[in-house]
Amino acid sequence: MVTLQLDGVGAFHGRHLTISGISTQAFAGGEVVAVIGPNAAGKSTLFKRMAGLLGGPGEVAVAGTQRGTSGICYMPQDPPTSAALTVYESVLLARKQNASWVVHDTDLAAVDEVLASLGIADIAFRSLGELSGGQRQLASLAQTLARDPEILLMDEPTSALDLHRQMQVLSLVRDLVRQRGILAFIALHDLNQVLRFADKVLVLAGGRSRGSGPCKEVITVDLLRQVYRVDARIECCSQGSSHVIIDGYSAAGGEIPHRAG
Ligand SMILES: Nc1ncnc2c1ncn2[C@@H]1O[C@H](COP(=O)(O)OP(=O)(O)OP(=O)(O)O)[C@@H](O)[C@H]1O
Fold first, then answer.
1. Tell me, what is one Gene Ontology molecular-function annotation carried by this entry (predicted)?
2. In whole angstroms, what separates CA 144 from the centre of its chain?
3. Where along the chain do its domains lie?
4. pTM summary value
């Protein structure tokens, strides 16, 4: 089983150490780990460091992989688009593992499967350049999933999607994680989506870790107050699941004068 553990991890942008000292327990295949925190907390930076795109101190310790670093698939927050390709071509190209790759029937079948599972077979032959923002995000998701990841790093993969699509994508990722033993890290801002879909959470703020572990243990009223500066309740709904309800927020930290609603 694939595992990933962070040990004193930091990352440089140029000479500036943007994140530092991030350590966690070992996360294992079959788990969805939400990476949460306010804007500029360091979530994208950590993903780039985990994907090997940024250098820095500490160790991203990966074990149990079949394909080494090529099994780590990173979906950036703003993926570049090559407007000349169709969705189908871009997803097929994502299957390319090395320079000697030639297309096999299994590649074509994998592309068909991923397009169908994301519900975007109808735009397979549209150019990437003519898609809506949400369609582009779905195409980027298809490219990432088509790589047969062992470890998935997805930076706000649902930020451009409508509610139905958010549910569809997060359910699909969770099902793939369970069925294939993938380890998925997903940066999300919607904490109710986190409580619904993630098994564990890693909280960042100011470039440092503010805790990690099972969602219900880590996401507390105190954490929401300290990290997000919101006055919130976490309540169980009639169907038994936990929800974050925001009552107010602080403009400057400490006191929480603004009441929502
Ligand atoms: N290319 C860069 N050069 C210098 N600093 C950068 C660069 N990219 C990000 N940073 C800085 O690193 C810090 C963390 O940014 P990062 O993008 O990782 O945050 P984030 O948690 O993903 O934020 P958001 O939720 O807003 O997407 C910020 O202070 C940001 O200004």
1. ATP hydrolysis activity
2. 11
3. 3-81+147-219, 220-261
4. 0.93
Euclidean distance between the first and the last CA atom of the chain, given in angstroms as a whole number:
47
CATH code given to domain 3-81+147-219: 3.40.50.300
Pocket of ligand 1 contains residue 10 by CB under 6 Å: no
Does the beta carbon of 212 lie inside 6 Å of ligand 1? no
Residue 15, ligand 1, Cβ within 6 A: no
* 188 three-class SS: coil
Q: pLDDT per position in the chain (261 positions), as tens?
A: 999 999 999 999 999 999 999 999 999 999 999 999 999 999 999 999 999 999 999 999 999 998 888 789 999 988 777 778 999 999 999 988 777 888 889 999 999 999 999 999 999 999 999 999 999 999 999 999 999 999 999 999 999 999 999 999 999 999 999 999 999 999 999 999 999 999 999 999 999 999 999 999 999 999 999 999 999 999 999 988 999 999 998 765 544 444 444
The residue whose CA is least distant from atom 26 of ligand 1 is 39
| Complex ipTM value | 0.98
Please tell me the distance between residue 106's alpha carbon and the centre of ligand 1 in angstroms.
38
